[in-house]
Amino acid sequence: MFTPFQKIRNLEKKQRLIIFTVFGLIFLTTLAVSIFASYRYFKQKNQTYIDSSVPNIIDLDAEISLDPSQIKEEDQKTLNVLLAGYGGAGHQGGFLSDVIQIAHFDFEKKQITFISVPRDLYLLTKDNKGYKVNSLLSSGMSNGGGIDAGLAFMQKNISLISGLPIKYFIGIDFVGFQRTVGYELKSIEVEVSQTLEDPWYPKEGAQLDSCGYSPSEIADLTATYSGFELESKFKCRYEHLLFQKGKVTMEGHDALAYVRSRHSSSDYDRSRRQVEVLTAIRNKLFKLDALKNMPKFYEAMSKHVSTNLDLESAKYLAPLLANANEFTIRNVNLSPENVLQSSKSSEGAFITIPKAGMNNWGQMQSFIKNQI
User: What is the pTM of this model?
Assistant: First the structure.
């Protein structure tokens, strides 16, 4: 016979187990890889110069109902989650979001669509202040509240410009991702579709290594060279990556490097690698006993992940995500090839804006709706 106290403890354990399991399903099937899908579009030849006095502005303070506890019956068909990736403490610009994506779940189609929002997408506020969307995280943190406040600020404003009702946010830094793949999943098996070789992948923590040069020699090099020509003089700051075509076992560092590598590839190639790693993570997750191991996973990741997923929402989502291993994965990249154009702000910074005009989000919203 259980005492009333024991019954309460057992109920609490079951509730925590639900949270851990649902959190893990969402996190590992949507976020873990999408922190690396950073899309930059500076190759557009016909650039426009923007006058910051454009009257069509967005109100960052607009009230939007995003209360997860008010989920309606019709919302059981779809779910939108904001995914934000950032370097974190110790990284230059650590709270500027390198990656901003919306994970759109369609439970009837058994499909997850990743909508990639370029970090340089530009908007104007009601007080005529310009923002790149990658700065929304740090801006939301500026008045106190930490990461959660920044993510909530992003959640509201990405909902406004995308036209999608985003109910949850999940944020993670690079350390959290590497520990997830290396410690909690004990490596992943990635099906590499094309051999990747990059002799210039930056070593973590080696950005300022002198590589044996004296201060005066470094000064001379800096005065003589610039850009990659200067960077290439400091070979000790880089490592050589090689991932052969076929099935490759990857630890956390390998998975991070595989998707972040830039020198020998394009944004579209990185998108392909993102899907490969995401698929590998999903496959590994469903080989594990999630109910048994999720509490340990959640405890290990709590220092690196921020989310507004609560108990009641977790209870609701559990049956919808039970077969997430069967979901197909699609990508929608907002870019100059469809609804965006490259431009420059009044300060001369490279930005991306809608083809329909500054802060005119209608065409982009229709495009997203048609794609999902």
Answer: 0.73
